[in-house]
């Protein structure tokens, strides 16, 4: 059973234990066996992996604790707002989207989470590994965490493979057999984990390039099928082009795209669409 958002749960403890286990194996077993902690190369690799592990822990903690963005209780969509060209409506009836559980209207891209029992702005999905929703306010930090985790996983695999292939002198073999076994076990566990994280990262990069959430992707598949059935073409309304899509998620400063900070664009109640009139073409 999941705990309240932000609270420690078994999946979170499992993730922290995995980070600690991989860190210990890579820095205190693999590096000494392959490069040695007394060498410049050993110290440099241990320091680099320590910094990467610290970044993983920091971004993971923020993803767990940060509120993904809640819909203001008094939110009411302004249907007469000329700047808001898209208002999402219910599939049946055509009324503005309204959450019966939270008793308020839902802004575009917001969805109700059955686990958190609240409406989340630009909700992507609920992640059990952070016991939190991934939404408008914490999506970038979640993405950066996954990126750091992928880099750290493959970095650890390189250290593990190098230490296993490294030939240990005969006079040291008796004391290194146990560490070699521990390293191999960590590598066996880490390999599918690194692959899964890489697939997850690739999936979210694909979504970002189209300015979609996971929910919108699945909704888009149905909308595309219905459009093709009616002889029309479906276009995702929030797809602004690759560069603008990246800016909308990662921020306007390209040098901060991979930084472990969340520079959220907008308040989550309204998003630019491909139907918006550019400022340069608006009448004076």
TrEMBL record:
<protein>
    <recommendedName>
        <fullName>S-acyltransferase</fullName>
        <ecNumber>2.3.1.225</ecNumber>
    </recommendedName>
</protein>
<dbReference type="InterPro" id="IPR001594">
    <property type="entry name" value="Palmitoyltrfase_DHHC"/>
</dbReference>
<feature type="transmembrane region" description="Helical">
    <location>
        <begin position="37"/>
        <end position="63"/>
    </location>
</feature>
<dbReference type="GO" id="GO:0016020">
    <property type="term" value="C:membrane"/>
</dbReference>
<feature type="domain" description="Palmitoyltransferase DHHC">
    <location>
        <begin position="95"/>
        <end position="218"/>
    </location>
</feature>
<feature type="transmembrane region" description="Helical">
    <location>
        <begin position="141"/>
        <end position="162"/>
    </location>
</feature>
<keyword id="KW-0808">Transferase</keyword>
<dbReference type="GO" id="GO:0005783">
    <property type="term" value="C:endoplasmic reticulum"/>
</dbReference>
<keyword id="KW-0472">Membrane</keyword>
<feature type="transmembrane region" description="Helical">
    <location>
        <begin position="7"/>
        <end position="31"/>
    </location>
</feature>
<dbReference type="Pfam" id="PF01529">
    <property type="entry name" value="DHHC"/>
</dbReference>
<dbReference type="GO" id="GO:0005794">
    <property type="term" value="C:Golgi apparatus"/>
</dbReference>
<dbReference type="GO" id="GO:0019706">
    <property type="term" value="F:protein-cysteine S-palmitoyltransferase activity"/>
</dbReference>
<dbReference type="InterPro" id="IPR039859">
    <property type="entry name" value="PFA4/ZDH16/20/ERF2-like"/>
</dbReference>
<keyword id="KW-1133">Transmembrane helix</keyword>
<keyword id="KW-0012">Acyltransferase</keyword>
<dbReference type="GO" id="GO:0006612">
    <property type="term" value="P:protein targeting to membrane"/>
</dbReference>
<keyword id="KW-0812">Transmembrane</keyword>
<comment type="similarity">
    <text>Belongs to the DHHC palmitoyltransferase family.</text>
</comment>
<feature type="transmembrane region" description="Helical">
    <location>
        <begin position="182"/>
        <end position="209"/>
    </location>
</feature>
